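From the methods appendix. Each design record in this collection lists the tokenized structure first, followed by the designed amino acid sequence. Records were kept in a plain field format so they could be parsed without special tools. The example shown here is representative of the layout used throughout.

RECORD:
FOLD TOKENS (590 positions):
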């Protein structure tokens, strides 16, 4: 496999089709045949010949995989092998495997960990140990499957408690700590042959809008942006050039207040993704970044609500971004025809000067240079090696240890650890039955004495029955996960309809939880509250509980009828019953 990362003045230019194709990364999450029910929701797990032909004809540079594409180890290996066969140069096969809430590969198979904020909670005792070791494990597992790009780490500084999409995906609110932990992960990913992609430049940490559903604006001063949002990116670029940096669909007037005419004929401040001042002048000229830039998904509402796919890609490329991620959906044979028309218009844009051929060539060369690095580390994935690598005992042990070392004791008025006696009654008030069963199983397997454990699921419960359980209980444990899931965690824009199903619980669960806490408090029940996600909610519930713990995660790895578990629940049970101490420290202010 040979790649020429640079082209001299005497060399012939690569074909225009190749240069443009290498600047596109498609999602092949679903694919249906003509006549299938639409909208298409049939997972693409085996590359059909029509998609293979498209990838080869247009020399598409990369593909992003979603959970639907990665259903079991053997199938993933076969899929990545077939994707690599369509091109003479390495295909960039990417995935969002951040760890924690954003992990596409089945948690029962791959080691998913408890996420960045849990790593941040261990920093005071362990420094960058977990950042390095977690990224190393994730990289080894991805590489064994033939996946060579991870859209991680997230180095957004979560300074806004109301952030709906970043929160626990961030290492915390301290820019310097985020920078150190992010740098450690970049080094570990790339040492093990996986391209890292810092995200989301210039920062998505201080927003109250999810760019999947709208267009956020950060109104900080230039000084504040430099000290907060930009600091992790600047540090990591200086310390070690990451293979990729992903853009943010966010307006930053202090960085670029220029206007762009959107597809509706309206003038609007340029999102960072479309800003040459941000993506070229700031990122490359001032911060010295030399690697490949890639957009966040262009189907997100922060872009697609204002721009057609063609206009979005043209504006993105003119801003100097190298790769357009998910520029247009390809779900059916008719979509392939639309893609061909779209691609032809991109070629015409170069011909008529709307896109500069010299800029396209420069981006193409950067992509080829990155692919040359990928080729150096490339090994043919093997089912046997992948099976032995994914979720192996050493990886699971690290996952369990991180979960335990992250548990944070925020309040304890003398009730932790529980000094349980034989057959005492613990009542659990949990967001749903699955999480309740996970904590129940963890407590029962940790306790040396038999316990009675009852459950109230906040998804559907009868208040009188819950009150009776509380009356009978010796201990009450309640838990909540805030904020609710975002599209990024489930997958992407295709999942927004599913998110609407959470709207009732999103508004009703906290009210029901608070009422049950108040009931337990007035009945003098020893009560523990567990924040299962972003710990900002603790200030709302702490007064009704004698103790508060934060876990930063609620992942369930194995979900069968009588076997539901996850590393955060095992760690919580050890702390609650006195088998271990809570040694984590809050990485954000509450």
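DESIGN:
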């Amino acid at each position: 496999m040979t790649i020429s990362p640079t082209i001299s003045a005497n060399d012939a230019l690569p074909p225009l089709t190749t240069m443009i194709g290498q600047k596109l990364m498609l999602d092949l999450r679903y694919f249906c045949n003509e006549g299938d029910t639409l909208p298409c929701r049939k997972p693409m797990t085996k590359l059909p010949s029509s998609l293979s032909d498209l990838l080869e004809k247009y020399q598409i540079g990369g593909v992003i995989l979603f959970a639907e594409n990665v259903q079991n180890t053997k199938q993933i290996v076969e899929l990545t092998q077939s994707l690599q066969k369509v091109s003479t140069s390495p295909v960039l096969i990417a995935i969002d495997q951040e760890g924690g809430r954003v992990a596409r590969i089945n948690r029962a198979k791959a080691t998913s960990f408890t996420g960045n904020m849990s790593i941040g909670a261990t920093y005071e005792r362990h420094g960058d140990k977990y950042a390095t070791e977690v990224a190393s494990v994730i990289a080894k597992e991805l590489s064994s499957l033939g996946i060579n790009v991870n859209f991680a780490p997230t180095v957004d500084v979560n300074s806004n408690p109301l952030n709906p999409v970043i929160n626990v995906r961030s290492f915390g609110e301290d820019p310097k700590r985020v920078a150190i932990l992010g740098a450690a992960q970049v080094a570990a990913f790339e040492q093990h042959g996986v391209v890292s992609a810092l995200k989301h430049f210039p920062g998505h940490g201080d927003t109250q809008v999810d760019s999947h559903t709208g267009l956020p604006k950060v109104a900080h001063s230039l000084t504040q942006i430099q000290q907060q949002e930009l600091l992790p990116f600047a540090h990591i670029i200086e310390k070690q050039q990451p293979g990729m940096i992903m853009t943010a669909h966010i307006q930053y007037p202090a960085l670029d207040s220029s206007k762009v005419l959107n597809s509706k004929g309206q003038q609007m401040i340029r999102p960072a993704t479309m800003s040459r001042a941000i993506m070229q002048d700031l990122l490359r000229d001032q911060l010295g970044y030399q690697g490949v830039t890639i957009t966040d998904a262009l189907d997100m509402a922060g872009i697609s609500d204002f721009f057609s796919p063609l206009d979005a890609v043209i504006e993105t490329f003119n801003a100097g971004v190298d790769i357009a991620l998910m520029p247009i959906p390809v779900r059916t044979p008719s979509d392939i025809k639309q893609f061909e028309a779209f691609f032809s218009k991109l070629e015409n844009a170069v011909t008529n000067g709307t896109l500069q051929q010299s800029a396209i060539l420069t981006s193409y060369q950067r992509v080829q240079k990155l692919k040359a690095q990928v080729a150096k580390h490339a090994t043919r994935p093997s089912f046997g090696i992948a099976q032995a690598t994914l979720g192996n005992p050493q990886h699971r042990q690290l996952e369990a240890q991180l979960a335990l070392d992250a548990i944070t004791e925020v309040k304890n008025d003398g009730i932790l650890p529980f000094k349980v006696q034989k057959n005492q009654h613990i009542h659990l008030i949990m967001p749903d039955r699955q999480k309740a069963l996970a904590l129940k199983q963890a407590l029962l397997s940790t306790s040396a004495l038999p316990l009675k454990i009852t459950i109230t699921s906040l998804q559907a419960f009868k208040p009188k029955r819950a009150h009776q359980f509380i009356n009978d209980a010796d201990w009450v444990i309640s838990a909540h996960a805030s904020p609710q899931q975002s599209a990024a965690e489930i997958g992407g824009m295709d999942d927004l309809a599913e998110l609407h199903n959470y709207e009732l619980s999103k508004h009703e669960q906290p009210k029901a939880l608070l009422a049950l806490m108040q009931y337990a408090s007035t009945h003098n029940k020893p009560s523990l509250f567990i924040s299962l996600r972003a710990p900002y909610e603790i200030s709302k519930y702490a007064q009704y509980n004698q103790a508060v713990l934060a876990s930063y995660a609620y992942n369930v790895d194995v979900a069968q009828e009588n076997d539901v578990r996850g590393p955060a629940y095992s760690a919580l049970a050890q702390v609650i019953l006195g088998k271990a101490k809570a040694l984590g420290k809050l990485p954000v202010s509450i």
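APPENDIX NOTE: The chain has two domains: 27-388, 407-576.
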